[in-house]
Amino acid sequence: MDARPIPIACALHLLVAGCVLATPLAWAEGEGVRLSRDELQALIPGSETHHTSSAGSVRSWKNAADGSFVASSDNRKYGSAAGTSNATAPGTWNISDDGKYCVQIEWRRVSEKWCSAIVKGDDGAYYLNSVDPAKRIEFVR
């Protein structure tokens, strides 16, 4: 094997790559912090939730202290041809033992049920499971 020196540009690249690989927290920045069960219990009751579903429907509800709510939606998935038929439906929410926000909504055509960890991003916004603009959820007081 030839013992030629490594060019400076390659050596710097290896040094930077090695530092990033040796520092696991370097990738944690921007991932946000998952809220604990206690933090969710302080945040959610009495808050108004705003969320856009994966189908693009904008929905909102107020998380009553008894675990109930009435959701409203612009109903883009099942609305009229123009996508403008609003809908309301009863729902329930709770915080699971493992610290997830769980929602069940009984829409006229479909039941919606999900649980998600709530992550607070570096920007102060809340997200479902991970910091991703498509997964943003708001809890407004």
Q: How many helix segments?
A: 2
What is the residue-mean pLDDT, rounded to a whole number?
82
Structural class: alpha+beta
Question: Which sequence of SSEs, written as H and E, runs from N to C?
Answer: HEHEEEEEEEEE
Tertiary shape: globular
First-residue to last-residue Cα separation: 68 Å
Q: Tell me about the biggest sheet?
A: 10 strands, antiparallel
Beta-strand content: 35-45%
What would you say this structure looks like, in words?
This protein has 141 residues and is of the alpha+beta class. The protein is built from 2 helices and 10 strands, in the order H-E-H-E-E-E-E-E-E-E-E-E. It has a 10-stranded antiparallel sheet with strand order 1-8-9-10-2-3-4-5-6-7. A hairpin with a 5-residue loop joins strand 5 and strand 6. The protein is globular. The termini are far apart. The relative contact order is 0.17.
